Amino acid sequence: MINWLGQAYLWVLAAHIIFVIFWMAGLFIFPRYLVHHQEGLADPAEPPRWEAREALLRRMILTPSLIIVWLLGLALAANMGLFNGQPGLGWLHAKLLLVIILTGYHGWMVSYSRKLKARKPTLNARQLRMVNEVPAVLVTLIVILAVVKPF
Ligand code: HEM
Question: Distance from the CA of 61 to the center of ligand 1, in angstroms?
């Protein structure tokens, strides 16, 4: 532990967890929006409503919390000595890999919403619902790694 955060450490950790919750809320609800958006493509009144909801959710919740979680998470990682070769941080490397995949999922959601805006869906309803489960699986593994620190 480098502990460059000093007295601020627990506040940074609390803020990290708070913004993780916001980010997760967005990552769970946004793909539900995509399902409804895709189902509503046949009705001319529906798509503009979903486009507006998706844009608002991205602007107010998803993008800010993604950035803040990453910044605070990297500050905590530096505090633990990740960038100073501290041993025993295998869990953190694994967690970072899963968080990078989760960030990729975030990017995929945004790109799929652009496809729906262009009226060009590439997944069927069943595939879209299955992809919805990805964040739940990743979050489960990430929290186990962060809390249990098994290796
Ligand atoms: C974006 C990149 C992220 C980085 C670099 C990162 C880094 C860290 C670090 C180093 C800690 C340990 C703090 C400590 O014990 O001193 C931590 C704690 C934690 N992180 Fe992250 N994190 C990130 C994203 C996430 C995500 C996406 C989640 C959940 C889905 C998450 C959930 C947690 C939880 C629950 C803790 C508290 C563990 C505990 O104190 O027992 N983190 N994070």
Answer: 19
Domain that holds residue 51: 6-148
pLDDT, averaged across the chain: 97
- Ligand 1 pocket, CB under 6 A: 13, 16-17, 20, 24, 69-70, 73-74, 76-77, 80, 92, 96, 99, 102, 139, 142-143, 146-147
Which string of DSSP letters, residue by residue, matches the chain? ---TTGGGHHHHHHHHHHHHHHHHHHHHHHHHHHHHHHHTTTSTTHHHHHHHHHHHHIIIIIHHHHHHHHHHHHHHHHHHTGGGT-SS-HHHHHHHHHHHHHHHHHHHHHHHHHHHHTT---S-HHHHHHHTTHHHHHHHHHHHHHHH---
Assess if residue 1 is contained within a domain.
no
25-53 pLDDT, tens digit per residue, is 999 999 999 999 999 999 999 999 999 99
